Every structure is written in C-alpha cells, then in structure tokens.
Amino acid sequence: MIIYIGSKNPTKIKAVENIFSEFEVKAVEAASNVSPQPFTDQETLIGAVNRAKECAAKAEGVIGIGLEGGVMKLGEKMLLCNWGALVDETGEVYVASGARIPLPREITEQLEAGKELGEVMDLFTKKTNVRKHEGAIGIFTKGYVGREAMFTHVMELLRGQYEFNKKV
User: Fold this and answer.
1) Mean pLDDT of 42-58
2) Which of 30, 65, 83, 141 falls between 20 and 30 A from 47, CA-CA?
C-alpha cells in the first residue's frame, strides 16, 4: 500500500515512516487551506484534515496523511498544539492530537503580532529551519521531546484507530 504524506518536512515524513515502515511513503505538497500560522485547535485540525484528504485523492486505494502544527489559547497561556489526520482507502477520516506545552510570553507576543512560529523560533534560537529539526517542542523541552517524536506519537494514535476500525 502507498501512503501519501502532505508535507516535505523531514520530521513529518520520518514520523509517518516510523509507524508505517512496511508501506511505501511518498511525500507531496498538500494545501492546508488554513492560515500559515493556525491559532486554534479547530484551525490546526482542519489544516491536517485538508492535507490528508488531498493526499488520499492522489490515487485509488491509498492512505492520505496530514500533520499540522499550530498554537491555541488556554486562559492566558498560548500552547503549542498539533493535529494529525489519516484518510483511508475508503475515505474514512481519523484524527488525533498530541503534546501541548505553554509557550514563553516573548514567543506569544511575536505570534500575536502576526509572525509565524517557525520564523519566531529561528530568531529566538539563532538557528535555521527549527521546524525541520527539533521544532519548538524540542527547544522548550530541552530535547526530551522533539518534533519527530511528537508527530510519531500522533501517528501511533492514527494507526491504532485505523487498525481498530479495520480489525487488522
């Protein structure tokens, strides 16, 4: 079976490969059709589902995966959030979310000023493409949980639901 992942981000691709190692995984660009910086759980989830549906439409009998990172408010705090969606070969949609941690106020202020988290993290860490490596989660957990691990957990949740439904 072929699985299409709607991203060229290496951390997302690796997360899918970690959990679906026996399948052929193809990375393609897929539109989230949400804002570049999702600001709610709902918007982040919609982005993941949109990517997964676009991927599933690539061919008959494939699985489409969408993984989306965003932020969401909880009281006065802004937290990282992430969602994944799997659209199976019959069109059934499975969704899962993962780790959440609060962001420092200096990061939140820049996001509220209209910057994207990836851009903010590159400036904050003085690195390039943090989103393609450890991610904000990796920075703010001192490497205990990286972006690949975070999305791998989401993929475990998705595969488990898929297998439960298929009685695999």
Assistant:
1) 97
2) 141
